[in-house]
Design brief:
single chain, 150 residues, mainly alpha, 85% helix, 0% strand, elongated
């Protein structure tokens, strides 16, 4: 059973780290190259499918990894504990930092008419995104080491 949970944890943490890494590597530079109105439009399009999907992936991966931390012992346990805490950190940064920024961007009703007092959120969003990307990659490494130690 631990092997099945290990595969599920690796899959979930791998998808999480992979998606966040891809956004950092490719999507963010593209968003920064866009004019503000185009950025707002693109941000809305990109978030349409990821916003409901990623929390499910991250939180279910966190739960599976936490279960592994409870049901295993030996050298794998602290690795799974660390991975679960790191994935919880990914979720926390997302919900407390990136999601509120996403809501502000989505609140712009017409991307061609940006409010005059609107502040470009891209630099702050990128900083939080890099943090959660780093947390997710470290979580993946801990999960892989934990699975290897099973």
């Amino acid at each position: 059973m631990n092997e099945v949970l290990g595969v599920a944890a690796l899959l979930g943490s791998g998808v999480t780290a992979g998606v966040l890494f891809a956004v950092a590597l490719s999507v963010l530079p593209a968003l920064f190259a866009m004019e503000t109105g185009t950025y707002v439009y693109a941000h809305k399009l990109l978030g349409r499918n990821w916003d409901p999907t990623m929390p499910v992936i991250v939180l279910s991966s966190t739960v599976v990894t936490a279960v592994l931390a409870v049901v295993t012992d030996g050298p794998a346990r602290p690795l799974f504990i660390a991975a679960a805490v790191l994935l919880l950190g990914v979720s926390g940064v997302s919900h407390l930092c990136n999601v509120p920024i996403n809501r502000r961007v989505k609140a712009v009703s017409d991307p061609q008419v940006i409010p005059p007092d609107w502040q470009d959120p891209r630099p702050l969003w990128r900083r939080y995104h890099y943090l959660r990307t780093a947390l997710s990659v470290i979580a993946l490494l801990c999960t892989a080491a934990g699975v290897a130690a099973l």
